[in-house]
TrEMBL record:
Residues 8-122 form the MTTase N-terminal domain. It comes from Croceibacterium mercuriale. Its cofactor is [4Fe-4S] cluster. It catalyses: N(6)-dimethylallyladenosine(37) in tRNA + (sulfur carrier)-SH + AH2 + 2 S-adenosyl-L-methionine = 2-methylsulfanyl-N(6)-dimethylallyladenosine(37) in tRNA + (sulfur carrier)-H + 5'-deoxyadenosine + L-methionine + A + S-adenosyl-L-homocysteine + 2 H(+). GO terms for molecular function: 4 iron, 4 sulfur cluster binding; metal ion binding; tRNA-2-methylthio-N(6)-dimethylallyladenosine(37) synthase activity. InterPro entries: Elp3/MiaA/NifB-like_rSAM (IPR006638), Methylthiotransferase (IPR005839), Methylthiotransferase_CS (IPR020612), Methylthiotransferase_N (IPR013848), Methylthiotransferase_N_sf (IPR038135), MiaB_methiolase (IPR006463), rSAM (IPR007197), rSAM_horseshoe (IPR023404). This is tRNA-2-methylthio-N(6)-dimethylallyladenosine synthase. The keyword Iron-sulfur applies. Belongs to the methylthiotransferase family. MiaB subfamily. Keywords: 4Fe-4S, Cytoplasm, Iron, Iron-sulfur, Metal-binding, S-adenosyl-L-methionine, Transferase, tRNA processing.
Length: 444
């Protein structure tokens, strides 16, 4: 590595989950606080951060090809930082295989980017994949700008060790950020323009903390406190684990109006044998009973989930149990994935890995079932009146796009501004969006 001047412009490319989107925003704020400016659209950046995701197959291959593309430039090569979960899991290999990479930084260490950049300018390749508990957030700059819908990471890491999943290894053990810090960050986000905050965590409902008086709080307590923040109109949270659902969280859906009627509660499979092999420690039946309790508290709650098809040993009959669970549970939306062996996880070495063609076929059937449910959910909301939080312009002039309380994309024709809450009647439903007819704009 050669010595080089400090970069003055940056670009951050975030892949994968919403927590990476949040981390990408915070890295951007950190770089801006050091005097760097974001590279203009279409222009080369002097520093490129690849904020990577390791959850599915060929994640690392994708990173290497992105690196190759970045280095194939007529101008000077950018300083390249690989961040995120691939950096955490495969940092050493990346340094060995990709000499053009100057920095490898894990998801718990990115607050140290300015030091790592300084080292890289001295020609020293820098790696930091330490996992200090919670040091990162205190070291990041204050938040000053926000879109109407903002993310707030409240919890990181996972202690569940599902047998297919890398997260416990890449993001580390479960930690909860302190209550007072979260309240302060939420307040700043609202002052900076947020009207909706989505609380993020790999197991967000495992969050726990204590208020000023030392009373222990769960996620529902945090939600109740946030609901008192003036100017914050909507609260969401994701992703939840069935085993960490509490009575309090279910009750919050009944009596906190700012808590949106939406629940992302992955089950992964409808077969108890597969769930056991996945180390999920809940049954399909227990999951369905939980849903009944959420629906008793909030009958219109929109349900979302995650599914894996083709887990090692999954039989046709077990897969059909997943299809049946999808029908019974009634999803408004769901993510579905083909199982992919992640090196170092127990499932990667299990017998009876399912053939790729069979996975493709099962994924198609599952996605068709989910799509039918999604359209049915959207159609069932036609005729309802609801507020839409305007997020951006639509494709056609005069058109705007935003989200309903049930997280559906709603478009409408009317005067509006990003950040408005607009009352609409839901008039027509497609599989992925609905048309709204505007009634009035609620005061900001
Ligand atoms: N293969 C396929 N899907 C996976 N997920 C996590 N690990 C794997 C894997 N090895 C899915 C799960 C999880 C979502 C974020 O990604 O469904 O809930
Ligand atoms: Fe991965 Fe399971 Fe933890 Fe979710 S609960 S992050 S799937 S180990």
């Amino acid at each position: 590595m050669q010595r080089r001047p400090l970069p003055t412009t940056y670009r951050i490319k975030s892949f994968g989950c919403q927590m990476n989107v949040y981390d990408g925003e915070r890295m951007g704020e950190l770089l801006a606080s050091q005097g760097l400016t974001p590279a203009a659209e279409g222009e080369d950046a002097e520093l490129v951060v690849l904020n990577t995701c390791h959850i599915r197959e060929r994640a690392a291959e994708k990173v290497y090809s992105d690196i190759g593309r970045l280095l194939k430039t007529d101008g000077p090569a950018p300083m390249i930082a690989v961040a995120g979960c691939v950096a955490q899991a495969e940092g050493e290999e990346i340094m060995a295989r990709a000499p053009g990479v100057g920095i490898v930084v894990g998801p718990q260490a990115y607050h140290r980017l300015p030091d790592l950049i300084a080292q890289a300018t001295q020609g020293v390749r820098a790696t930091d994949t330490d996992m200090p508990a919670d040091a990162k957030f205190a070291a990041l700059p204050r938040r000053r700008r926000s879109a109407p819908s903002a993310f707030l990471t409240v919890q990181e890491g996972c202690d569940k060790f599902c047998t297919y999943c890398v997260v416990p290894y890449t993001r580390g053990a479960e930690i909860s950020r302190p209550f007072a810090d979260l309240l302060a960050e939420a307040q700043l986000l609202v002052e900076a323009g947020a009207r909706e905050i989505t609380l993020l965590g790999q197991n967000v409902n495992a969050w726990s903390g204590a208020d000023k008086a030392g009373r222990v709080l769960g996620l529902d307590g945090l939600i109740r406190h946030l609901a008192r923040v003036d100017g914050l109109e909507r609260i969401r949270y994701t992703t939840s684990h069935p085993n960490d659902v509490t009575d309090g969280l279910i009750a919050a859906h009944a009596d906190v109006p700012k808590l949106m009627p939406y629940l992302h509660l992955p089950v992964q499979s409808g077969s108890d044998r597969v769930l056991r092999a996945m180390n999920r420690s809940h049954t399909a039946e227990a999951y369905l009973r939980l849903l009944e309790r959420f629906r008793a508290a909030r009958p219109d709650i929109a349900l979302s989930g995650d599914f894996i098809v083709g887990f090692p040993g999954e039989t046709e009959a077990e897969f059909v149990e997943t299809l049946q669970l999808v029908e019974t549970a009634g999803y408004a939306h769901a993510f579905s994935f083909k199982y992919s062996p992640r090196p170092g996880t127990p499932a990667a070495t299990m017998d009876a890995q399912v053939a790729p063609e069979m996975m493709d076929e099962r994924l198609q059937r599952l996605q068709a079932t989910i799509a039918r449910g999604q359209l049915a959910f959207n159609q069932a909301t036609v005729g309802r009146r609801c507020a839409v939080l305007v997020e951006r312009r639509g494709k056609l002039p005069g058109q705007w796009l935003g989200k309903s309380p049930w997280l559906q994309s709603v478009w409408f024709d009317a005067d509006a501004t990003i950040g408005d809450l607009v009352m609409v009647d839901l008039a027509q439903a497609g599989p992925n969006s609905l048309e709204g007819r505007v009634l009035e704009t609620l005061a900001a």
